[in-house]
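Appendix C reproduces, verbatim, an entry submitted by the partner laboratory led by Prof. M.T., so that reviewers can inspect both the input and the predicted structure.
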Amino acid sequence: MLMQTHEARLDALRRELKSRELDGFVVPISDEHMSEYVGAYAQRLAWLTGFGGSAGSAVVLADGYEGLGAAMFIDGRYTVQVRDQVDAKLYEYRSVPKEPMGKWLADNASAGARIGYDPWLHTQKWVDQMEKALIRKGITLVPVESNPIDAVWQDRPSPSNAPAMVHPQELAGKSSAEKRSEIAEWLKEEGYDAAVVSALDSIAWLLNIRGTDVDRTPVALSYLVAKADGTAELFIAPDKVTPELTQHLGNAVTIRDRMDFAPALAEMKGKSVTVDPDYGAAAIAQLLEEGGASVAFNRDPAILPKAIKNPVEQQGHRDSQARDGAAVARFLHWLEREAPSGEIDELTAAAKLREFREAHGDLRDLSFDTISAAGPHAALPHYRVDEDSNMKIPPSSIYLVDSGGQYPAGTTDITRTVWVGPGEPSQEMRDRYTRVLKGHIAIDRAVFPQGTAGSQLDAFARQFLWAAGVDYAHGTGHGVGSFLSVHEGPQRIAKSGGGQAGTDQELMPGMILSNEPGYYKAGGFGIRIENLVLVEPREIEGAEGEYYGFDCLTFVPIDRKLVDRDMLTMEEVEWWNAYHEKVLEILAPQLSGDDLAWVERECAPL
């Protein structure tokens, strides 16, 4: 009989822990590749607790009792969601980084306790930090050979066995052999025999393959060992291997069963192997060291070249953005007509937007779950609508939609905030919206010298909000992949410090980032304006050194009903008009009838 309640599942896990002589267990949202989005088979935290967010962890003590025996650890994005989805009688709520897991365990587990963790779901960096936090209480971290949740999760889905697909060179712009050769040169220069590549998007990029194993990210479950001679070993389930894949990879890539990966690591005696500290599971380093290999931690050598898009990838992005922009414009026109009735809800709007994307052809998936946020929900930056939270879009209110698509030539991500009539927005709404717009324009128009990091540009976007004594609690921009992850490192535009990965990475020509400042009034409304931009060289007469700027890739009308024209400078008005002139140029050939007339109206000079 299946366990239907989260209390029953928690009790079953505790019995399993006791049978293994473990005093507790850590449950992250993670898979063996440290992916942002994970397959259904890896949704252990959701199964155990009911939490549906994309980041968080739980700790369960075997001898639990109300108020002390288990805790949820989430960041500020999920403060509301965790309380809605996770039973407070079963779990305490703890906010990270202010209330770290290590401190909670040290305070609540018995001295000498044995706390289990799955070494395939955590990095070695995490293990080292936790051991440091627990040593004062004599608490021991114990790697488990098999995950205890899997032992009690009776109807756990199997990992996807969908075939891996070839990503053609006319879309990739560079062959897998060329990419492997570049990685091999780096390995030789650094003195390594091999690199273990476990991030799924890095494997997909390096081999020019894609898959359907993870929702929202077109990757195939696998591992790769890239070698200094340019060859590689791909560890992948046999069911996923097609004749086309075998032919595409050629003789230089040996295809092995995914089940052979762990034994293969243990056989690399005497080899010098590099592992990524952020994407390599702790088990990888542990198995290598046990087998006699020398292990070093370095950034995955595919990450930076993957982030620097070649000319073919850049053009693919432009083509995908144009197609996507027409779909989003049709949706915004539909929304303007239908939403003032008060009968359109958040789920209906999200489904309608997907329908428009599918109608334009070539959509393979969304690039993330659409944020369709009405009224006060728009004040939650990472809101995810579901059947329980779904609400109708109120007339005379702000509606925010953050969405994207996966197309074979590129990945899109766009946010538009619009006023739903009738009536007029308040002066406060106009003020905040216009300040966000001014920050968005400042990033778009930025010119900066070679070597500039994203953290050095972040204040460009915030300055107008800061002048009014307000701010937003997320980054201003993230990297975006080419028919890969919608959140791609290493580049970011965000405040430095606080462990913000990527904020010190210099911005380089070919990198694609989002430009998405925002403002959120708790319980009231939220605003975000997001386009994607490409870093490119800037020709400046008399310039001393290399200078760069951004070329906008996203072209969809920005809502004019929320703009306070008097707050804009002449240069900002000129930017607005030039941007919308380009929007019309790109979208008009794809639209007709009322949709075309709507875009023409929205693109009229401000």
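The mean pLDDT is 95. Additional entries are available on request from the coordinating office.
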